[in-house]
Amino acid sequence: MSACRVKSPNKIRSLIKVTSLGAAVFSAFSVYRGDEKFYNTVFMPIVRLIPPETAHDLAVLGVKWKLFRPSYQDTDRLRTRLLGMTFSNPIGIAAGFDKHGEAVQGLQLIGFGFVEIGSVTPEPQPGNPRPRIFRLNEDKAIVNRYGFNSEGHGAVYDRLRESREQQPREQRVTLGINLGKNKLSSDAIADYVQGVKRFGCLADYLVINVSSPNTPGLRTMQSKSTLQTLLSEVLKARATLPTSEQRPILLKLAPDLSEEDLKEIVSVLRTEACAVDGLIVSNTTIDRPSTLRSNNAGQLGGLSGPPLKQRSTAMIAKVYKLTEGKVPIIGVGGIFTGEDAFEKIEAGASAVQLYTSFIFHGPPVVPKIKRELDRLLEQNGYASVEDAVGKGVDKYLS
């Protein structure tokens, strides 16, 4: 009886090398092309083993290097007009992912219809001490207390100017710049005025963010008297710029505002001196629903993801009703599917933004949501996103 042949160590090593190389090539291609199954079953579970802020920094770096390019062609039904601009689709990335304007072109390649960067503060500041971002894996949610960590106006301005100059104007993605105030600022209103003047020539729209829960005293700027002064000064500052640099200005609201707070804010917006061009509804919440299961639920900071979804959708409907649909709304909060986006649009949002779903599912979530949204628009007889805006407002108010 002949003895079994045993492969030599060299052949085994060669086989391992070839197999490893093949696996690496397959993985790299799956990541690049945005294979949804590969991301959900292999790539993202590995990412979740990395500390959250490290994973975030690596994700921004990967997008900056344009390593992710999911394949999807936007349909005519997804094209929409907002703030006097045409978006190829109504799905944007919310502020908080690309804080320093490093990855705008890469986010465009992933398929976002518009990109919002920031928040950006006048002077550089480190933000709150680490750890300051926490995954709630059981809830697919995130708690963050970054505290406006920013490289400052100067560094972000230079980076964005260089990035924008690399592309012809007609090929650039719509860019929003979210403005914040420095933690130790002695004049918060002056911080926002400075941002409007600095970035008017680069942004397509600007956001006044007074709703982050992670900067002491910031949310008090949503009170009626302070908000009146803030918005009137910001709009005056815009009026001093050349006409070509007078960008739409939006106000970002907190989801924890009471009905009375909302009514007061809308009354401010109705005055000519404070009439901003749109609203972003909403920021993260300091509330902790009893349904949360994660051990990190008690961490201080703003909660985002599915636990915020219904609250933000109801708030969109309330604001849409209070403003009689005359103030454009960008909806944010817990959008993981096309149905989530569709609900916010029917509640009154003209466009929506993602953050937490992008963190949990990676780039493939963008074409997935667009496909599902397109199908829902068609099934419900809407020829465009604009046709669907506010059509279900009463349903979401209840």
TrEMBL record:
Q: Where in the cell is it found?
A: Mitochondrion inner membrane
> Which example biological process does GO assign this protein?
'de novo' pyrimidine nucleobase biosynthetic process
Catalytic activities: (S)-dihydroorotate + a quinone = orotate + a quinol
Spell out the Gene3D superfamilies in the cross-references: Aldolase class I
The EC number(s) given in the record are 1.3.5.2
Q: Give membrane topology per the record.
A: Single-pass membrane protein
Under which main EC class is this enzyme filed?
A: oxidoreductase
Entry keywords, A to Z:
Flavoprotein, FMN, Membrane, Mitochondrion, Mitochondrion inner membrane, Oxidoreductase, Transit peptide, Transmembrane, Transmembrane helix
Q: What cofactor does its activity depend on?
A: FMN
What positions does the domain Dihydroorotate dehydrogenase catalytic occupy?
78-377
Could you name the domain of life of the organism this protein comes from? Eukaryota
Pathway as given in its UniProt record:
Pyrimidine metabolism; UMP biosynthesis via de novo pathway; orotate from (S)-dihydroorotate (quinone route): step 1/1
Q: Which InterPro entries match?
A: Aldolase_TIM (IPR013785), DHO_dehydrogenase (IPR050074), Dihydroorotate_DH_2 (IPR005719), Dihydroorotate_DH_cat (IPR005720), Dihydroorotate_DH_CS (IPR001295)
**GO CC annotation, single:** mitochondrial inner membrane
KW Transferase (keyword) present? no
Give the matching SUPFAM superfamilies.
FMN-linked oxidoreductases
What does the note accompanying the cofactor annotation read? Binds 1 FMN per subunit.
Where does this protein chiefly localize? mitochondrion
Q: Name one GO molecular function term.
A: dihydroorotate dehydrogenase (quinone) activity
Q: Which family does it belong to?
A: Belongs to the dihydroorotate dehydrogenase family. Type 2 subfamily.
Annotated protein name in UniProt: Dihydroorotate dehydrogenase (quinone), mitochondrial
Q: What is the lineage of its organism?
A: Eukaryota, Metazoa, Ecdysozoa, Arthropoda, Hexapoda
